[in-house]
Amino acid sequence: MAGPPGAGKPNPSCAGFEPRNTTQDPDNGYSVGSVIIYGRFRTIDLGDLYWDREFDLMCPTNRVGTVGLYIVSHHGSNLSGSAALVHALQPRVAVMDNGGRKSGSASTFAVLESSPGLEDLWQLHWSASAGTEHNAPDAFIANVEDAATLASILTAPPSDRPPATAPASQARGGSGGGRGNLNSGHTPAYWIKVSAE
Predict the structure, then answer these.
(1) What is the pLDDT of residue 172?
(2) Which domain holds residue 154?
(3) Cβ atoms 82, 55 nearer than 8 A
(4) If you count Cβ atoms within 10 Å of the first and of the last residue's Cβ in the chain, which end, N or C, has fewer?
């Protein structure tokens, strides 16, 4: 039986890898990662696995292979999501489970945008730190801020920026509740549903 597509091949993205000494929260180093296979569909979710551990997993050879869906590691934080990982996975679609102010860093978007074969990027929230240069179009964001809130986020100095929330009438996406620390402006909050056939 053949292994996963792309697994065991040399990873050319390892050549440009620069360590980041990502050891702030030791628990993240123990994140459980999963590759889920359904027929020919393959997805990967590595939780909060750190940048430097991604190198251990993917270099010098790609041990995972390619995937159809990449659940963006660490909410799109710049502490994860190296090109050594993402470019070797060659995902067709990525889903970023970021918050308006939680992760979704510009450097993570840059790695995704340069990933070979990436067709679409979906986000849970519009990312204030990525700005207008990197966020996906509104149709690919489950919880979009209203125009006035976005304008104040983009024009205010970082220390004076208002929280990234939106009236419920402005939120879009699938119906759903969600759990966790939701901003009251995103009630109801919307989620992204992935279907594979």
Answers:
(1) 36
(2) 21-186
(3) yes
(4) N
For 83, the token pair is: 């090109």
Determine, yes or no, domain membership for 46.
Answer: yes
Asked whether residue 1 is assigned to any structural domain, the reply reads no
> 67 and 115 in contact (C-beta within 8 Å)?
no
**What is the widest separation between alpha-carbon atoms in the chain?**
58
Q: Are 149 and 164 in contact (CB under 8 A)?
A: yes
Give the CA dihedral 91, 142, 82, 153, nearest 10 degrees: 150
Cα-based distances in Å from 168 to 4, 21, 71, 98 = 43, 40, 26, 18
Residue 133 lies in a domain: yes
Kindly report, residue by residue over 84-128, the tens digit of the pLDDT: 999 999 999 999 999 887 889 999 999 999 999 999 999 999 998
Count structural domains, the chain.
1
Q: What percent of the chain has pLDDT over 90?
A: 53
Place of tokens 């939780």: 47
Residue 2 inside a domain? The answer is: no
Tokens at 162, concatenated: 């208002």
94, β-bridge pairs: 70, 121
25 touches 51 (CB < 8 A): no
